[in-house]
Amino acid sequence: MANLKSVTKKTKAQAMGMHTEVLTGRTQQKFFNPDEAENFFYFGTYDVDFNKRTDLDVKDMTAADANKEIDNLMSQGYGTIVIKNPQGKHSLGVGILNKLNLIFEGSLGYFGIGSCDGPTVRINGRVGWSCAENLMAGKVVIEKNAGSCFGAAIRGGDLICKGSVGARTGIDMKGGTIIIGGDAGAFTGFMMQRGRIIILGDVGINLGDSMYDGTIFVGGEIGSYGSDAVDAELTKSDQDWLKRKLKVAEIGENFDVSKMKKIVAGKKLWNYDNLEPTEKKGAI
Amino acid sequence: MCGIAGLIHRGKSSNVGSELQGMLQALRHRGEDSTGYALYGDTDGKNFIMRFKVGENVGEGSTSIVEDVSVYDERKKIVDQTIIELGAKIVKEERTLPYSLRYEISYEKKDLLEFSQKIESIPGVEILSMGKSLEVIKDLGNAKAVCERYSLDKLIGTHAIGHARMATESGVDIKSAHPFWGYPFSDVSVVHNGQLTNYWNNRRALENKGMRFMSECDSELIAVYLAEKMRSGASLEEGMKESLSGLDGVFTYFVATKDSLGMAKDTMAAKPLVLYESDELVAMGSEEIAIRSVLPQEIDTYDPFDGEVKVWQI
Fold first, then answer.
1. Is B313 a residue whose pLDDT tops 70?
2. Looking at residue A213, which CATH number applies to its domain?
3. SS3 of B125, please?
4. Which of A75, A222, B174, B183 has the fewest CB atoms found within 10 Å of its own CB?
């Protein structure tokens, strides 16, 4: 290594193996094309007819077999699939990269609807930990309660739980919207990086702990704020957006959004780009 | 990872042995190193039931030292003699396996601390449980294997807790398996999923207060911690609430007594628990599939929140 006392700041940094250029996130923006995103499709996906409907009883099937059968039905053009007797099985409905109307008549275990992009899912029951993890786009509605890590690391889409959710809801989320009709547990919005969380009920301790960006709206009591989470002004446009979202989510129809609290990240990270949630696919 | 399960029937008895077996077997993917049952059976309440071991299971996967059965026989003889010296009487004895025994004991003095200390002063002997209703059965293997080995599927009772273990902090042996008896309290048992990070600090403090540890499994600390709180006059629920700050780390644990079942979840809610509650039955487990083994129909379940403590009576 060069003598650090005798070099300029730039060469000193280079000598230490560090870069000196300012990173602005433009590299990510450069490759984003809205038209391409709109027409994007995955290899191996299918054209389905939402009016073509079938039932699938998974009572005696493993999760892997059930997921293969869902894929098989989509390949036959079925656009509406009703899953009977899920009985709390783990990892059902994962990896669906298709437009699809998927209905579960019962509860799911862990990791349900994981890594999906596009389907509309309704679960007439409860879900376990890590429901809809890594959701890219689509809509997932849970009629009852949800476990912890609900919507972990989602990039987009609408994730709606009409009941209460466990701890770390929206952990590491990078886009999309999570809407909770009831209460939420500790560390909600932990390390969230983008997107929005709406909680109509109470929320536990350390709300928004270590959040980078994104917005959390809370209708009830807050157990405590996490590091970096601060209050912000609830604007008229926020209220209009909340009303629209709650209407689409079919919950909180008469909820007074003007009394909600708005929580954002208090810190501003150097080198943190300003991509909108709609630009999510170009960013990853 | 480990999995825990528990259930309590309110106002009636049921086949809790079979029910808990189904719940724990559904969780076998969370750990099959050992499985343990704490069953609260229907008894007349006259005698103590003592489950104890005079050796370890040295079968496949065990980390224990192989011993000859004659060593077990010799230890059993000393136990029998010690029971007589304590003024107690063996009413009924069953030797399910060479190393595992079940005694029904008439003991008018009811000083379980003195009794346990004397019995456990015999090298290689450990009391797994002592109570008027509680029976702790734990051994290597999954829930089905242990249930069949000990014929637990016909046990009728009101409530039960159990544990499917993936060994991490200590060896694959019976002494490190859950449930742990809340020594020296009659009919108290504990199962735990998680990891306690202030185990040694707490252990040293509790040993200085005269409490006993039989293993190096961090989960045993919960049983001893609660026992010490109750010895100091706290109720079970008070002890559980104090444990949320007294125990450091991540945990969800169940504790059961002769007539109650409780759960506690750490303040970070880092370990899973799903709960079903009705007027007739409370069932809970690390995953919903455990509950589904006793309630296959569509039911309403939920996750208890962080720092939550609940206790139910039979």
1. yes
2. 2.160.20.60
3. coil
4. A75
In a domain, A112, yes or no: no
Domain membership of residue A114 (yes or no) is no
N residues, chain B: 314
Average pLDDT for chain A: 86
The CA distance from A192 to A214, in Å, is: 7
Residue A46 in domain: no
Q: What is the mean pLDDT of chain B?
A: 93
Domain presence at residue A139 = no
Distance from CA of B85 to the nearest CA of A (A): 54
For chain A, give the number of residues.
284
Q: Do B303 and A205 make contact, defined as CB atoms within 8 angstroms?
A: no
For tokens 């637990």, what's the residue? B152
Domain limits, chain B: 3-45+134-313
Banded pLDDT at A228 (limits 50, 70, 90): confident
Q: Provide mean pLDDT across the span B192-209.
A: 94
Are the beta carbons of A87 and B268 separated by less than 8 Å?
no
| Angle at alpha carbon of residue B226, lines to A204 and B139, rounded to 5° | 100
Is the complex ipTM more than 0.90? no
The DSSP code sequence of B184-199 is: TSTT-EEEEEEEESSH
The closest CB to that of B306, out of A106, A164, A205, belongs to A205
Mean pLDDT of B181-210: 92
A152–chain B nearest CA distance, Å: 14
Specify the pTM.
Answer: 0.85
Across the range B283-310, mean pLDDT stands at: 93
Judged on CB neighbours under 10 Å (0-12, 13-18, 19+), B48 is buried
Q: Which of A126, A168, A205 sits opposite B301 (nearest CB)?
A: A126
| Owning domain of residue A222 | 145-284
Q: Which pLDDT value is given to residue A281?
A: 47
CATH 3.60.21.10 at B3-45+134-313, yes or no: no
Average confidence (pLDDT) over B58-80: 88
Counted domains in chain A:
1
Residue B2 annotated in active site: yes
